Amino acid sequence: MKAIDFSIYSSVVVAYSGGKDSTACVLDLIEQGCPKELIELWHHSVDGKGELFMDWAVTEDYCRAFAKAFELPLYFSWKQGGFEGEMNRENSLTNPISFETPDGVKTVGGIRGKKSTRKMFPQQSGSLCDRWCSAYLKVDVSKAALNNQERFHHTKTLFVTGERALESKSPKSGRALYAEFEKHTTDNRDGRKGRHVDHYRPVHKWDEAQVWEIIKRWNVNPHPSYRIGWGRLSCATCIFGSCDQWASYEQMNPEAVAKISDYEVAFGKTIDRKKRSVPEMVELGTAYDAMNAAPELVKLALAKKYTAEIFLPEGQWEMPAGAFGDSSGSP
Fold it and tell me: Total structural domains in the chain?
């Protein structure tokens, strides 16, 4: 693929989860020579602005700390009611979407469409129709934010995401089939609004070693979940979570796991496709060593304030416990 000509773009928007792949995207953009004044980070808040339900408590503030360290603007976006609100929808429209802009918060949607009932967790599937958490809480949210800001009309925008081909179980399915560079689904370059949006996946062909290599090169302190033992930053209670992850998080936050288990009973359907309930997966799993060996990391991951550094001192970066390990959380 040819080098990206960043000079043609008015904005370079990075979908930033706080995870290793989106972090690598930001670092690679800078190393490629993308002017930092073009880059802005967007974080989709999975649980909306209400009570924490599925996500890591520290994730949003980790993103704030990262953005501040790199002197980059950060905008949050969310579906009102978040994961829990969409999951509990009954004979109603999907909720509106809100997103921060340079001029304040804007809210769109929630007034058209067909009423329906969900009353179930997303299913473990490569299809976004079944795995609705990705579609409704991330993909649709970013599309709404791109479609409904005039600053993206009659300009060229580069939208950057961190999918990697090797995350797919097969080279002929899922993320392996994504293009490294293509028109974004919100592109309207030939339409009345002239919204030119390209979609770029800079780490699509990378392996995990390359991802950690660039993070090490910049001495960036990864999200605490990696240091505890998680191999991928999804929700703390991701629907793809392994038994070891469930056992670990149950030890960290038993109230949250119990709440999810109660929903399984209420819905009459387990999260796991093998029909194992969350309590069964907890029983089958083994909690990570950090549960007892590094209580300070557990405390940090469960805090709403990120109090550690983003840049580690030279020579003090260490490969996190979760690297090259338990990467459940990807379809």
Answer: 1
**Is 317 contained in some domain?**
no
Question: If residue 23 lies in a helix (H) or strand (E), which one and from where to where?
Answer: helix 20-31
SS3 assignment, position 199: strand
Q: For residue 253, give both structure tokens.
A: 């936050």
pLDDT at 176 over 90: no
pLDDT recorded at residue 331: 46
- Crossing angle of helices 208-217 and 20-31, rounded to 10°: 60
- Specify burial of residue 148 (Cβ count, 10 A radius: 0-12, 13-18, 19+): middle
CB of 137 within 8 A of CB of 83?
A: yes
pLDDT in tens, 30-67: 999 999 999 999 999 999 998 999 999 999 999 999 99
Tens of pLDDT, residues 4-40: 999 999 999 999 999 999 999 999 999 999 999 999 9
- Whether 134 contacts 175, CB under 8 Å: no
Nearest CA among 163, 41, 140, 43 for reference residue 86: 140
Is residue 147 one of the residues assigned to a domain?
Answer: yes
CATH of the domain at 168: 3.40.50.620
Phi and psi, residue 205, nearest 5°: -95, 5
Does residue 80 fall inside a structural domain?
Answer: yes
Among 289, 172, 134, residue whose Cα is nearest residue 227: 289
**Ramachandran angles phi, psi of 75, nearest 5°:** -120, 130
Mean pLDDT, rounded, for 181-207? 97
**What is the span of the domain harbouring residue 109?**
8-225
Specify the pTM: 0.95
Query: Which residue has 């704030």 as its token pair?
Result: 64
How high is the mean pLDDT of the chain? 95
Query: Quick check: 22 and 55 in contact, CB under 8 A?
Result: no
The answer on pLDDT for 329 being more than 70 is no
